[in-house]
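Hey, I'm writing a tutorial for new members on how sequence and structure tokens pair up, and I'd like a real worked example in the thread rather than a made-up one. If someone can provide the structure for the chain below, I'll link this post from the tutorial.
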Amino acid sequence: MNALLSIAFVLCWSSGFIGAKLGAGSAAAVTVLMWRFLPLAVILLVAAATLGRASWRGLAARDVVRQAAIGVLSQSGYLLTVYYAIQLGVSSGTTALIDGVQPLVAGALAGPLLGQYVSRRQWLGLCLGVAGVALVTTADAMAANGVAAWAYLVPFLGMLSLVAATFLESRSRTRVAPGVALTVHCATSAVLFTVFAVAAGAAAPPAEAGFWAAVVWLVVLSTFGGYGLYWLILRRSGVTKVNALMFLMAPVTAVWGAVMFGEAFGVQTGLGLGVGLAAVAVVQRDGRGGRSRKTGRSPQPDPHSLPVCPAPKPQDSGHRLSGGCS
């Protein structure tokens, strides 16, 4: 089951870069994002008021505010930078490469912020993943013409925004249902992107079938598929392992680009995909039955974690992820 979830996550998350490119051809970034989230937020809010009312019971105002902050970082901040970078001319593959640095950043911060032990073998896998991603997109980045150097900093800021959202969620003490979190995140993004689009005079959608095809693509595959599975796998497996899958985004995005847009897929791309797969295998197989960094013994349950959860796994020691037991 975990393997199937991981495969689905990689495919759906990678589809977001392709969807951004599809939308960028017919409208501004804020226009695509506004119409991606506005109808979705309305549907989710109606569902929450009718079918999912029980999931909201017991939530304090501070829990909703925390989820709104996570939504600002993980959706609004992250997506706006990705779309804007592609609009500036940064290719989807290069954007995925910069996004692929996220696991290394998250791995470096997991210890001091969450107390999660990242072993030497996992660090090897993380570094191997960076090498695989670089193989796929280095040539593309070097061949880019007419793109300002500062444009490559834009997706880097988005990557940091998603890392911040991941740790903010991981330090939460309150159990929030995935449907509740998704509703709050999407509603927050809908409000922000609508404000941005109206302020920019870009709220009106273009009368093109391709625009709405891109919106449907992004809602179904990227939001419900990629974004939903990101938080599900995060809660089941921990920060380090879910972020290791991010190494596959750049090569898989290159495959999508080759199929949909006729972009070249050469030996270097295939080699990078193989290295990325090896990196994920190294990280996913490590950490089973490891030891605590501080004590040298198997970690004990977090006294602050939810009482219904068993003792945390070695890779998740120190703090319990908020969405439930691993």
